[in-house]
């Protein structure tokens, strides 16, 4: 008898607790994040969404007093025991709320990661830059200004450039922490369309305060409250038939 295909999970989080000194910010989080899906993290301010997303590529390592117990498997390997944190951050890229281009040219922003990874051949770098800008839907707008400063781009263009920079490091996951909250509606729509295209090749985890955004683009939604994962389900199911009354209150705007 043919074996069923194994379900593919990019992350398998088990019993994750996180403390900032004595204060517990994440409580016993367990969830599986599926490959080539968009998973939205929602919940009121201070509930632990950013803390959780930053744990997935160990960015919290830089915070003094922050410690973690429990397990996160990334593509089957324990990120705290079996994976080098720098290598992890190439595989699990991150885009922030405020676009963060370097004060360098468009080209150098995108070539930065590959250069650090040891690629110095000009033609190879040009290919990576073009491919990454195309994937991030920036090429047509930016091909004639590759050698101009990235700081001259609009906020929405800067955010897509940051996505291109992330893609150039050849990740399999893109973490997005409120990537559109500083952007106008048209730029927001471009990033949402882009996320939907990118999930064909990448796993995406996005923190958002916009219920509409979670609904429009995510396959799964995780609702956090006071450091706990209260509900995790298919987005359609969560928004039409939430199983926890707190989830319902939050998504219908009664608190948060
Ligand atoms: N570097 C830090 N040191 C100490 N406490 C922190 C730190 N970062 C976050 N916290 C605390 O951890 C808790 C969760 O914060 P976090 O930023 O993860 O929430 P959030 O859900 O992302 O909030 P928001 O939607 O406002 O961004 C909060 O109580 C916050 O004050």
TrEMBL record:
Sorted alphabetically, the keyword list is: ATP-binding, Nucleotide-binding, Transport
Q: Name the gene behind this protein.
A: pstB
Would you tell me the Gene Ontology cellular component terms? membrane
Has keyword Ribosomal protein? Answer: no
The protein's name: Phosphate ABC transporter ATP-binding protein
Show the GO MF annotations: ATP binding; ATP hydrolysis activity; phosphate transmembrane transporter activity
PANTHER family in the cross-refs: ABC TRANSPORTER I FAMILY MEMBER 17
Q: Where is the ABC transporter domain?
A: 11-251
Gene Ontology biological process terms from the UniProt entry = phosphate ion transmembrane transport
Pfam families given in the database record = ABC_tran (PF00005)
On the tree of life, the source organism's domain of life is Bacteria
